[in-house]
Structures are given as structure tokens and as C-alpha cells.
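Researcher: Sequence of ImmA/IrrE family metallo-endopeptidase follows. Predict its structure.
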Amino acid sequence: MPNRLGQQFKNDEGDWKPLKDATKQEKQHVKDGQLEKREGRLVYSTGSVFEVSQTNATQKDLPQIFPNKWIDGVVQNYYQLCQGMEAIAHKSNSQIVEPYEELGTAKGVYYTGQGEVALNPRNSELQDTKSLLHELTHAKLHTEEKRNDYTMPEKEFQAEMTAYTVASYFNIDTSDYSLDYLHHWTKDHEFKDHEGLLQEVQTTAKEFIMTIEDSLEQEKEGEKEEVNIKESRSEIKKETNVQLPSEKLKDMYRSQVSAVKRNSSPFWEKENREDELDHQGFKDAYKKEVMNFIEPMAGKGLDIEEGNDRQERLSQMLSFQRNHNHKEVNELKEESLQELKELPLTERGEQRLAQIETKLEREVSPHKEKGEGKGKQTSEQMRVKSNQDTYQQTDKRKKEKIEIER
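Model: Prediction complete. C-alpha cells:
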């Protein structure tokens, strides 16, 4: 069992005694440096322990007994928020990945050397949202170049304060967890530039909020556009029986993304689990999300026709992006946008598609620049180097995993 010893001093007989039991004269000698003193330390001894269910602790006692317990709960618009946080990661040139090792009680981790963020698979939606904001703050402010500019308490203070601020803005209550976390990292710690730390928190929180709101706004605009188009279509049908141009768009779009032909393969169920996307599956899902925004009538119409669950689709896309690198995902998105250009889109649809394409180009540019200037290698050289890099990076990750949310 852990026991913390207080400060001790060595008396004239050479024995270590608790400083609190020293006489007035001995305390003066300690102060003058005539008697040796040592700080308190944590020691362990054998003892008996009890599981909480074996005690008389109540539900109300648990937050005090387990101050670092997981927060449980669901989040409204969880998958839309995840898309917004994915956008934050892209802006910070970071990637959300699966953890490289067992995280234990840690809720999330930022691999500083790789610019990667991972979450504990045991997290609830509420814990995931809060912890991802926390780790993304590390990725934004505490990069490999700047991490030594802050102490550990300063970094944890900024990460948790930003996560708490952004979550609160979207009516996500993490106060029970965040306030205890902040208290732990701020008590008995003096920050040299408290005002500067808070200014960075404010700037970062504002940027995160704007990015997430942009993502949510795209969703709202898509729904509003769908209503307007339905009303217009209804008016046109009253005046004429001529087939609408949108019917051709719907037919061509359906032929691009319909899963019927692909799913008819006898090997489909064996090769692909229902909750996972392959490369073509991701492209189809991405096209459907884009079409829901640029041409809501065709996009959402097909979703209704096929009985698609959009929340499930977003979850599958998020999982795919976590398990594949930026370059691979962006190439699939670029291919999807090029294929959508072949459809007879409306003028509004073409404008919106161009906006998405421009946004994707901005996200891709930083990752392309990282790969410029490298010489060509043979496939054998690349294979050998890949094996060496995998071993070195695995070892490096263990050393560089410094921003862990306990």
C-alpha cells in the first residue's frame, strides 16, 4: 500500500526523524543547515485493500473516490461534431489514429513526434468528444518544436481549459471531470505567464469553435436546400408533365454509388464486414455526403430510397479515416469529386462542388509539401526502409508519447 512520508531530519545520533517532531532547537539547526534534512517521499508497504463494492460507499461518494473515472454519456450530433474535429485535425496537420498500445486508464494520447492523436477505445461519446478536443489542443499548441516552451502543468492546463470551453459552447457539460482535472494540474504550481497561457486558450478555443460551426452549418444548409428544392419541384409538377432534369441527375448518381451491384457478389460478405468500408465503399459514402450538401434532392432522395442510415455512414467514414493515412484518404476524396463532376449538376450544385474541391486542396497542400524533394527509390529499397522505419517509429512513439490525458 502507498504511504507518503513527511519531511525528515537526521538528529545528533544519526537517526532520521519526522521534522514535525523536532524540538525548537533542532528545527533551528535544520534551518541553519547544521542538521541534514530530506523531503517527503512515497513508500510502499504490504497491506489489505478492498474493492469499492465491498465498502459502504454510495453513488455520491464515487467522484471523490475515483476523481479520474471515465465520464459516461451520449452527445447530440456526435458524428457531425466528429467531422468538425476531423477538420480541426487537418488544419493542425495532425491525424486521428488508433492507439499504438494499451492506454490503460488514459483517455487519450498525443504522439508528439508523429503529430498523431489517439483515443481510448473504452471511451463513451461524451469522453471521446472531450478528450479529442483536449488532445487536439496539444496538437495545435504543443508541437515538437514548441513543447519545451511549456511545463507539463501548463500544457495540461491549456489542453483541458480549451476542451472545457469548446465543449461548453456546444452545450456539452464536462464540468465534473474538467474542473477536477484542472485543479489537479494547477494546485501547488505557479505559472510564469498565466495571462499568455489564457490568451492562447482563448484563441485556440475560438478557432476550434469556428471550424466545428462551419461543419455544422454545411449540414444545416444542405437540409434547407432540400426543402426549397422540394417546394420548387412541386410547383413545377403542377404546371407541366415534362420529366425534370433532376431525374436524369438522380439516375446517373444512383448508378455511381448504388451498392446493389457490388453487394451482389457472392464474396462480398466474406471479404467485407458490414461495419467496415473498403476503398470503393469509402468513395461511395463520401459521394453521398457531398451530394447531400450540393444536390440535397438527389442525395437525400437516394438515402431514403435505399434506407441508408446517415449516422452509421458517418461513423464508418470516421473509422476508415482513422485507419488510413492522409494521402490515401485525400486521393479517394479527389477521385470521388472528379467522378461527381461527370453528373449533370445544377448551377448551384457546381458552385458548391467547387467550394468543396477548393477546401480539399487547401487541406491536401501541407501534406504534399512534406513529401516534396525526396529522391526516387526502388520498390526493394522502399520495402527495406519501410521495415526499418516501422521498427524505429514504434520505438520512437513509446519515447515521444508525452501528452497523455490520465
